[in-house]
Amino acid sequence: MRAPRRRFDMSAVIELLLGVPTVLSSLLLITLVGRAVTPERPWLFPVVWLVSGVIVFLPATGKLLAALVHGMRGPTGTERAALEPLLGAACGAAGVDPGRYRLRIQNSKEINAMAVGGHVVGVSTAALQLPREQLEAVLAHEIGHHLAGHTKISLLRWWFELPARATVWLVIIIGLGIYLAGDKIGTTGAKVISFVLIVALGVAAVLVSPWVLLVPVIAPLLALASRKAELHADRVAAELGYRLVLLEVLQRWVKEGHDEQRARAGFKARMLASHPSCALRISKLRGERRRPPSRSLGA
To answer: Which UniProt keywords apply (predicted)?
Structure first.
């Protein structure tokens, strides 16, 4: 078994840094709540909130999010029998224990796979129809995400950003309610008052969560980091011997029109895309000249 490649790559570091402004806004909000609720111990709420981050590393958290966010379920006996040997082979190549990962299934007609949290490896029902060696290569790619810490960093950032993001959504909902109330009353005075209240609400939100001013910059940079993470996971799969087979999967997606759909989406959509084009991924994999040749994969 090879030494496991457990290292944070640059994309994970970039995502961690990009989350700092939002996390600081969340910390400010939690601190204000703590001072209001427990003025004699204002440090209590922030400390408890920071310690709560350990919840993202629990296996149960990944399974819960896989079910709630991605609609994933546990595999049937037949699905498990098909997937476990392939996961075991991919983990064996990486030098990690396959028992640390939890298999999940997403009912979907699109070929897809994903890593969630620190322990979940999920595939779509359509992906189960891939040839065994191609499905094994896809699983190796997802293991690459776990080994690089991509999923843990994403989940940790999401957890600590929740207070700030929830506050922004609350402000938007309240602002919409004020606007609808002023519009329903219909008088000029009511509309002016609603406008003033909305502006005041927006200013207060920016003062408490100044990160919203950085969204136009942070969003595309986070998308770029996500695309870099995909290329890194491809590289890990190539290092484990799956380069040629992973190329087959990507070429299959090209034939199915994935890149054509991406091209039609427009510049903004491509800038905010979480995955690079298949053409770029193929180019990067073909450029892995210093990597060992792909090993023969059993059916």
So the answer is: Cell membrane, Hydrolase, Membrane, Metal-binding, Metalloprotease, Protease, Transmembrane, Transmembrane helix, Zinc
The pLDDT of residue 191 is 83
Q: Give CA–CA dist 109/115, Å, rounded.
A: 18
Lowest-pLDDT choice from 57-61, 106-110, 146-150? 57-61
Query: How far, in Å, CA of 216 to CA of 54, rounded?
Result: 30
d(CA 64, CA 223): 24
pTM for this entry: 0.84
- Identify the bridge partners of residue 106 per DSSP, sorted by sequence position: 72, 124
Q: How confident is the model at residue 5 (pLDDT cuts 50, 70, 90)?
A: low
Tell me the residue range of the domain where 98 lies: 10-153+217-286
Report the phi/psi class of residue 281: left, alpha or beta, with left for phi > 0 and alpha for psi in -120 to 50.
Answer: alpha
Contact 75, 83 (CB under 8 A): yes
Q: Is residue 210 part of a domain?
A: no
Question: What is the pLDDT at residue 7?
Answer: 61
Residue 246 lies in a domain: yes
Q: What is the number of structural domains in the chain?
A: 1
| pLDDT (tens digit per residue) in 10-21 | 888 888 888 898
Burial class of residue 179 in the structure, from the number of CB atoms within 10 Å of its CB (0-12 exposed, 13-18 middle, 19+ buried): middle
CB of 225 closer than 8 Å to CB of 15:
yes
Helix or strand (DSSP H, E) at 290 = none
The amino acid that residue 177 corresponds to is: G
Q: Has residue 34 been placed in a domain?
A: yes
Q: Are 7 and 26 in contact (CB under 8 A)?
A: no
Alpha helices by DSSP H, listed for 95-208, are: 132-148, 150-185, 188-208
Task: Calculate what percentage of the chain has a pLDDT beyond 70.
Answer: 93
